[in-house]
Every structure is written in C-alpha cells, then in structure tokens.
Automatic annotation (TrEMBL):
It comes from Tichodroma muraria. Residues 1-25 are annotated as: Disordered. Its main location: membrane. This is SPPL3 protein. Keywords: Hydrolase, Membrane, Transmembrane, Transmembrane helix.
Amino acid sequence: RSLNMDFENQDKEKDNSSAAGSFNGNSANNSIQTIDSTQALFLPIGASVSLLVMFFFFDSVQVVFTICTAVLATIAFAFLLLPMCQYLTRPCSPQNKISFGCCGRFTAAELLSFSLSVMLVLIWVLTGHWLLMDALAMGLCVAMIAFVRLPSLKVSCLLLSGLLIYDVFWVFFSAYIFNSNVMVKVATQPADNPLDVLSRKLHLGPNVGRDVPRLSLPGKLVFPSSTGSHFSMLGIGDIVMPGLLLCFVLRYDNYKKQANSDSCGAPGPGNISGRMQKVSYFHCTLIGYFVGLLTATVASRIHRAAQPALLYLVPFTLLPLLTMAYLKGDLRRMWSEPFHSKSSSSRFLEV
C-alpha cells in the first residue's frame, strides 16, 4: 500500500513503529528495489540465460535449485504471514525483540511467521501437493511485488515489451532451434526430492526417504482440470510483472488525487468528460489484466497448446493505459519520473 502522510505525523509514527514489527514503513522503503531502464532492458536477457541453464543442466543443478527455491519461498511466505502473526501476538506478548546472537533480533510475531512458513515448506517437501506449491508461489509473488518498484511508464513499457518478446520466443520459436519447447519443458520438469537425494547420498537404506514424491517447483500456479487428468499453469512472471504495473498506476492514482486536492480540485483537460476523469488508471489496467488472462485461457483451450500469457496480458494492460493517459493529458508526466515533484517531495512521505 502507498500512503501519503504529512511530516507532522512522522514523529508519532516513528514512536509507534516498534508495535508494527520490523516491516514498518522505513525498513520496507529502504529494502525496495527500483528497476531502471538498463535493468528493464537486460532482465529478459538474464531470464533467457537462466532458462537455458535450467534446460541444459537441470539434472546437475536441480537439487541446489530446489533448496534455493524452498529457502526463498520460506522467507517470502513468512513475510506474507507476518501481519496476521502481529495481530495474533499483540494482545499476548510485548513486541520486544529477542536476540539470537549473530543471527539477529526478532519479535515474537516474526518468529511465529517464520516457524509457520518452515512448517508449510516441510509439508510441501514431504507431500509435493499442488495446493501447497500454489501457496508458496503466491507468497513469492506477493514478496516480489512488495519489494520491487517501477518508477515510470517508460520503464514499465520497456520491461513488459522485452518480456513479451522473451515469452513469445521461448514458447513459440524455441522448438525450431532446440528441437524442444524450452519454456514448457523447464516449467513442467519435476525435480528430485532433496530428502530422497540425501538418503541415497548417506546410504540410509532403501526405505528411508524413498517414498517422497518428486517436486514441481513453485515457479508457477497450477490449476487442475475438472477431470483431474491434467493441470493448467500460470507462471509467476505472468502475475508479478503486470502486478508491478498495477502497483505503479495505483501509486500514480493516489499521487494525482493528492495533487488535485492540493490544487483545490483543478479540472482536467477541457476535451475530457468528468466521467472519464473519474475512471482510475488502476481499474482500467486491472480490467485489462482480467480480459488478457481470459483471452489467454481461451486461446490455450482452442489451440490445445501452451500459450505465452504475456502475449495477451501486455497489450490488454499497456494499450488501454497509454490511451487513457493520452486522453487525460497525463502521458508525458507518467512517462518519465512522474513522482518527482518539488511540490510533493517536500511534504509527503511514501511508506
């Protein structure tokens, strides 16, 4: 969430920050990674390299990759559970931090959320159930959206356009070069269970750790069909990248609303109706995401083949957004550093 607070209330918020745990506005703001134009251009290239490594060397790195994914999922889901744990532990215990030596200091809510997250990951490793994998994937999505930010519409267009080309190439054209659909193979290939590998390495016997299933890694959400014969998949990149765009337009909606209130409700351009001015960029982009996802699902059913979801999501989110920004007269402001304003930067704190 993005909240605008007057500096008069900042001291009070700082005094009460210990009651909110370590994920308060200050620490969250310091840990946010803002993507610039260079990173947006090179992200599809880095993703392509990672995809090729997984395609060619999956058997060699699958255990390491599974462990790293499990650790990241644990941290992400602990972050997701933290507000609930803060609410549960607030009446029972003070929010004083407990020291664990070199590991750091943590509140009771943080320890509870981390313990629940570790338990969930262990159950997933033991069972390999798709519902638990989806839960961990959603935790990864929320954490990435919370700690990564798009600063402008220019960076958003560069990032989503590059990932659109990346998605289309690896789904539709990789088979002509590598004799296999690289994206589908990497996404659907299960990994050896670390417990099974550990039991074989330590020679713990034929019945120890051998009945655990292979793991489908939480880099996607899976949805079983009505008959249960197959699963539909949606990569977390198809959720996170449009989600970053949604966060950007939501921040801009709040910024513009505050700016309009400061200017005593100054009207928009004369050629735009009042009804159009009331339509938020967030709702426009959210509806576009829904329509794009629905179109991708229908296309997958019609062609009975994997579809690059960003092929549908990017046009249905970016084109209506660009059109509305042009009609409202905000396109130039949104395109480059829309939140850097002398009038607002000195009066508001974003948390």
